[in-house]
Design a protein that fits this description.
By secondary structure, the chain is of the alpha+beta class. Helices cover 27% and strands 32% of the residues. The radius of gyration is 48 Å and the shape is rod-shaped.
């Protein structure tokens, strides 16, 4: 059985050599235009477009293969062209955007179990060492490409998915793999990290026996992915595979089983040396089309440039609520259209009833999920009706500058919770409290007024008593008189008692009257009461209207005990 296997391996090597000759012909023409000195390696790694945002990730290395300083690259005069239009370059710096690692693990039984375990262990190390915002996607190849894990920054979920991968029969279909990854990236573009790279893990036997794999890696099949693509192959000897690896533009990396983990680690660490040109394009650039993006350094010659095709059909979508589900009366679960970063505070949400009251239920707590796609709000219990929810400057996790539209409204309806006493209190408490405060103020003012009037009456009564003390000096008739005064504004009668000598003038002018009343319908001097022998008489002054009981009086009228005198809106009950 060793003889046929040997010939099969030789045939595969011969076929791979033919592919190498074809690739070599293309590689020679490409090498004719080598970059100028100082930029030995200069190429576009990826273009991230999400109109108006546009990020270009490039690699720039010197003759020794060392990364160039961003300041040196910017000083060289980098220019960007979208089609024929020159666009601003923006600042050039080391790329700091999160990375989406698209891991493709060849799990076919043709891969030796030891090689499979080496790759799985290396990928576990990658997951453990990734950045906090970096994402992982996981695919397998046996039996056709299959996505086992959608993009997530949850390292625990990625490690569990890796552990569940088992070897099954099958081969690597590059065209189908590219189509699957392209479709997934296109559909989930808004939720994926701006930078993306694809790592394919296989072995030398698979690659030598599958010339279409090498052809796909070196051709246009993977170019449409618009990302860095690297195939890692474990081999025990250097030979034709190593030569072919060089002709794929560095997309194939070979190493033995012992050195492969370190080789893979050096590649993902090298991603930290990529430069980024972050800029913006006009909103008019958005459209369902492919444009050519060119990065050039004219000052160093026309050879120092690279170009790629970019799809302009992606437009920046602001964070928004796609769905709101109420559980019970006080738990609201929100699903966002993309991962968000700062929606873990109640101040990021504005909730109000969609009625004339505009009631705002209190948001007691907010819990944001680990992937940033959902938030659970604990609320004050809600009642039947429609409610409006607005976001307040909620930022995308992938692009913090992408802020939610604060005017966008998500509406949901609550049923099964009829109004109760608390419902009405929550809506009417403000006017009720205002009205209560007003009534208290009026009652306090009335009490203060009554106390002031009583103090004035007591002072006047004391003055009368003092005046009556000196009876020897006064020859006028005098007697004690008690009047119970009630105005329209007063609730109860006010008692006035004094010793009347001669006469008592009643009116509104305190300077001209002995007894002053507050009544805008009474005159300054309205009536006079005087003592004559053992009688007390009353008479209107200057045509004023005075009633005793129900009878209007004109001339002097003799008062009887408990007679009621009416003047304006004031009554005085006389007690003799």
């Amino acid at each position: 059985m060793r003889g046929p296997a040997k010939y099969l391996k030789q045939g595969a090597a011969f076929l791979a050599a033919l592919i190498a000759l074809c690739l070599l012909a293309g590689g020679c023409s490409a090498s004719a235009a080598a970059p100028s000195a100082g930029f030995a390696g200069f190429s576009i790694e990826q273009v991230y477009v999400n109109v108006p945002e546009l990020d270009v990730f490039v690699t720039a290395q010197d003759e020794n293969g060392q990364p160039l300083d961003p300041a040196m690259v910017q000083a060289a005069g980098v220019e960007l062209y979208l089609g024929e239009e020159k666009i601003p370059t923006g600042n050039i710096a080391l790329a700091s955007e999160p990375i989406c690692y698209i891991l493709v693990l060849d799990n076919s039984t043709a891969v030796q179990p030891e090689d499979f375990r080496v790759f799985r262990a290396a990928l576990r190390n990658l997951v453990k060492s990734k950045g906090e915002r970096d994402q992982i996607m996981l695919y397998t190849t046996a039996g056709g490409p299959a996505r086992l894990l959608a993009a997530t920054d949850d390292a625990s979920a990625a490690l569990r998915a890796l552990e569940e991968v088992e070897q099954t029969p099958g081969t690597v279909d590059v065209a189908a793999l590219v189509e699957t990854v392209y479709t997934d990236v296109h559909n989930d573009y808004q939720s994926l990290a701006p930078r993306k790279c694809l790592y394919l893990c296989t072995d030398a036997v698979q690659m030598m026996a599958n010339p279409a794999l090498l052809a796909g890696l070196s051709g246009n099949a993977v170019d449409r992915l618009n990302m860095a693509v690297t195939a890692f192959a474990i081999t025990q000897e250097d030979g034709a595979l190593s030569a072919l690896a060089g002709l794929t533009g560095g997309r194939v990396v070979t190493a033995d089983r012992r050195d492969m983990p370190a080789e893979m680690r050096s590649h993902w660490q090298a991603l930290g040396q990529v430069l980024e040109c972050k800029t913006e394009v006009d909103l008019d650039a958005y459209g369902e089309r492919l444009d050519t993006l060119t990065v050039a350094v004219p000052g160093l010659g026309s050879a120092v440039q690279d170009e790629t095709s970019v799809y302009m059909g992606h437009r920046l979508t602001r964070p928004a609520v796609e769905k709101a589900v109420l559980t019970g009366r006080d738990t609201l679960t929100l699903t966002f259209n993309q991962a968000v970063s700062n929606a873990d505070s109640a101040r990021r949400f504005v909730l109000s009833s969609d009625d004339v009251w505009g009631w705002r239920p209190a948001i007691r707590s907010v819990v944001l999920s680990g992937d940033g796609m959902t938030a659970t709000l604990t609320l004050q219990p809600l009642y039947n009706g429609r409610y409006n929810l607005r976001l307040r400057e909620v930022a995308s996790r992938l692009t913090p500058a992408n802020i939610s539209d604060n005017t966008a409204v998500t509406t949901f309806t609550v049923t099964g919770s009829p109004p109760d006493s608390l419902f009405y209190w929550q809506r009417f408490r403000v006017p009720v409290l205002v009205l209560g405060a007003l009534l208290l103020a009026l009652a306090g003012r009335s009490l203060w007024q009554r106390r002031r009037d009583r103090a004035a009456e007591q002072q006047a009564e004391a003055e009368h008593l003092l005046d009556a003390a000196d009876e020897t000096a006064d020859t006028l008739p005098a007697r004690w008189l008690t009047l119970y005064v009630r105005t329209r504004r007063s609730v109860a009668e006010t008692r006035w008692t004094g010793r009347v000598r001669g006469s008592l003038i009643v009116g509104t002018d305190p300077a001209q009257c002995d007894l002053c009343i507050e009544d805008h319908r009474a005159r300054p001097q309205h009536c006079i009461l005087w003592v004559e022998a053992d009688r007390v008489l009353v008479q209107a002054l200057e045509g004023a209207i005075v009633h005793v009981g129900d009878q209007r009086i004109g001339d002097a009228h003799v008062l009887q005990n408990n007679d009621v005198i009416k003047l304006g809106r004031t009554t005085m009950r006389v007690v003799l």
